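Exercise 3.2. Students should predict the tertiary structure of the chain below and write it as C-alpha cells, then compare their answer with the key that follows.

Predict this chain's 3D structure.
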Amino acid sequence: MRKPEKVRFELRTNQNLSRQNLQRAYGSLGVKEPEIVNDVPVIGALIRGLKCIVRKCIRWYVMPNWGKQREYNQIVANMAEDYDRMHTLLMEENDILRSHIEQLQIQVTQLNAKLGMRSIFELNADRAPRIIQLVSSLNFGDAVGNDALAIKHMLEGAGYATAIFTFAIHPKIKEENVYTIDLLPELTEEDIIIYHYASEDGFQGLIEETTAKVVLRYHNVTPPEFFHGYDEKAETITRKGLTEIKDMKDAIDYGMVVSEFNKKDLIAMGYQCPISVIPILIPFKDYERQPDEDVISRYSDGKTNIVFVGRIVPNKKFEDVIACFTAYKEKYDPTARLFLVGNYQETDTYYQYLQEYIKKCGVKDVIFPGHIAFNAILAYYKIADLFLCMSEHEGFCVPLVEAMFFETPIVAYASTAIPGTLGGSGVLVETKEPEMVAETMNQVMQDTEYRSEILKKQNERLKDFAYESIRGQILDEIEKVQQSKIDKVRNQNGEEKAD
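Answer key:
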C-alpha cells in the first residue's frame, strides 16, 4: 500500500492514526491475530505468511481513506500558509493599523473631553469667572507650558473653574482640564482668557472676536534674525509672530507680562492697556525631588563643573559659552568640564555648527547630555560649581532662578531680561571677550569671600520668586480683572469699540 506523502501541521501522525484505528477494529470486529503453534518448520512458515496476509487485510479494511487524509492534511497546510501570509501582511501594515487605533483613541479622548467640558464649564457656569488659558502648544519641559500648568494648578486650588486649551499636547503630559482648541466652549463677557504668547500661534482671530476679557501673558518673541541660516521655519514663525503681536494690541484688555523687559517691548509696539509685571510661577517643590544619583556620583570627583541650561537654539549663544569656557580651561583650570544641558536633534544645523566650533576651538570636556529626565536636570544643577549664561535674548530666563535655588553662582551676559531677572544678584558682564569673562569666572571660583557674597545676594533675590508671593500677585490681578467693566462691541470689520 502506498504511504501518504508527508504534510506539515498534521494533528496526528499517520502511524499513530493507523494504530488507533486498528486497535478499534480488533475490538469491534472481534478479530484477533491467530495463535498458531509452529510445530513443523514448513507449516510454520506458511502460517507466518498467512498471518501476515490476514494482518494486512485487516489493516487494509480498517485503514482511513488516504485520499481524504491527504486532502485534510493539505487543507491544514493551506491554513497554516494563509496564517503566515496574514501575519506577514499584518506586520507590513502595522503602521496603518496603529494609525487607525490612535485615531480611535483620539476620538475616545475627545468624547471624554467633551463630557469633561460639560462638567467643568456648563455645569459650573454659575462659578464665574471661568478662566481659560490659551497656549500654542503644551510641551514637556517648556518654560511657557510650565507656567501655564502652574497657573492652572494654582487656580484650581483657589476654586476657579479653569482649563488650558492648545493646538498640541505633548504625550508625556497627563493632566486633567487640558484640551485641544477644537473643544473650546462658547465664552461670555464674564469669562477671562489668560493668553500666553511667545510666537505665532493662530489664536489671533479668536482673540479679536471674543467678548471675554483677555489678559496677555507675554513671554516675548525671539527676533527672527537669530535663526537666519540655521532654521528657516523658526525664522518665518518668529517674524510672523512679531507682526501678529503688534496687530493684536487693540484686542488685549490687560497685560500680565513676566518681566520689565517684556513690558517695555509691548509699550514700544503701541500697547496702551494696563500692564503689570508678574514673574513666571515656579513650583519649587518640584525641585526638591531626588536628583539622579548616577549623574552626581559620576561627576562629583573634585573637578570644576561649569553648567548652562537651555534649549539648543541660536539666541542662547552656546558658541559664546564654549569660547569663554575654552579661555577659562586653557588659562586657569585644565580639568574643568562644561555641561550644556538642553534638548536638540543631531540633524539641527545649529547643533552641527556647535560641534564644528568645538573642534575649531580644540577644546575637550564639552558635554551635551541631550534629552534627559527632570531628575537628571536637577542633578546637573547639584554638581554645578558655576552657571555661565551668554544668551542674547531672554524674556525671563527661568534657569537663572533655578541656579539661585541650587545655590550656584551665576555669571551672565547683561542682555534683554537677564539683568531684571537677576535683580542685582549674580555677576553681570558687559562684554563677551572670552579672556575677560574667563577672568571673572576664575575670581568667582577662587575668591571665597566674593563667592559667598554672590550667593547671599542670589538667595535674597530668590525670595522675590517665592511661589506664594507670585501666586498672590496673580490672584490679585485676576480679581482686579474680574471686577473691571469692559464692554466690547464689534463693528462689521471685527474692530473693538468701547461703550
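Discussion points: The longest strand covers residues 131-138. The chain has three domains: 14-92, 124-277, 290-465.
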